[in-house]
Design a protein that fits this description.
alpha+beta, transmembrane, elongated, 24% helix, Immunoglobulin-like, single chain, binds 2-acetamido-2-deoxy-beta-D-glucopyranose, 302 residues
Length: 302
């Protein structure tokens, strides 16, 4: 074999190895940072993908660990391998078989800031010989931004309410705990409240409460409060003052005006009509007079 052939073979081998590795390409996608409210829960969105064909989900193992130590697990399918202060607080809410590695942490503590990394392992057993198991894995990490105070709800409302007409106010709050959503309450009784939950991406969710009331006179200057109670018990609220306006009513001006103008018009038409009629009558009389005179003069000439 000459040198050139050797070089060719080396190249081909190298290419073959490269393509076999990249045909089994893994990718994990974890949100880079997410707010987490102390005492509440946080759900960290995570997904992974691979290009190596169908995966037997029984061979997949999803682990979450602290970034500075692959052995410091915060989630593992074997609970004895989870760090003490994360025991019973973490749960894989995504299904690994659906490439979903979403993690839930409950009872968030102010030192839970991470970073935490997801690691998926695929165990490939050849001939059921554990010594020949092969592991493939990827990692991606998230940082938790700790909030010790909950975010305030935001209220969107029309400037003024009109007496007796439906008035709609929207109260919404952003959170990262979609498995135990915050409760929004109002300080007044209404049966007309609609609640929505929206995924606003990157692990953030919005809970919205839409209240519709029909204001009465006594509701003028009333303080309306929307309170958000988060999982874990922390609360925040937003208050505003309702201003109730009467419906502007111009009937007391419009009705007499219409009646007045209408009467004037009718009277006008009547006058014109009468004037015409009278004129015709006079003309007729004059004609009659004329013929009478002619007759009389003819008679006198005889
Ligand atoms: C992953 O699972 C979570 C929790 O069940 C779910 O909310 C989310 O939509 C899933 N993500 C995808 C990409 O399917």
């Amino acid at each position: 074999m000459d040198n050139e052939t050797k070089f060719m073979i080396t190249c081909m081998l190298f290419a073959a190895i490269c393509s076999s590795v990249s045909s089994d390409e893994w990718k994990a996608t974890v949100v880079k940072s997410i707010d987490a409210l102390v005492t509440s829960c946080v759900v960290v969105p995570c997904s992974f993908s691979h290009t190596g064909g169908n995966l037997p989900s029984s061979r997949l193992r999803g682990i979450w660990h602290e970034k500075d130590g692959t052995k410091r697990n915060i989630y593992h399918e074997d609970p004895t391998l989870i760090k003490d202060n994360f025991k019973d607080r973490t749960k894989l809410v995504g299904r690994l078989g659906q490439n979903n590695c979403t993690l839930e942490i409950t009872g968030v503590k102010d030192h839970d800031n991470g970073p935490f990394c997801f690691r998926v392992e695929l165990v490939r057993t050849e001939n059921n010989d554990p010594t020949k198991d092969k592991f493939f894995f990827v990692e991606d990490c998230v940082e938790l931004n700790m909030l010790t105070e909950p975010l305030k709800p935001a209220v969107i409302k029309p400037k003024t309410a009109t007496l007796g007409e439906p008035y709609t106010v929207t109260c919404s709050v952003i959170h990262t705990c979609p498995t135990h959503v915050p409760k929004l309450t109002w300080n007044l009784d209404s049966t007309n409240i609609i609640v929505h939950h929206k995924d606003i991406k990157q692990g953030n969710w919005e809970t919205q409460s839409i209240l519709t009331v029909i204001p009465e006179e006594k509701d003028d200057n009333r303080e309306i409060t929307c309170t958000a109670e988060f999982n874990g018990g922390l609360k925040s609220s937003e208050t505003f003052t309702l201003h109730v306006k009467r419906i502007e009513n111009y009937n007391h001006i419009i009705i007499p005006a219409v009646v007045g103008i209408g009467t004037a018009l009718l009277f006008g038409i009547f006058c014109i009509f009468m004037a015409k009629k009278y004129k015709n009558h006079i003309a007729e009389l004059q004609n009659q007079e004329g013929t009478m005179w002619n007759r009389l003069s003819r008679l006198s000439r005889r």
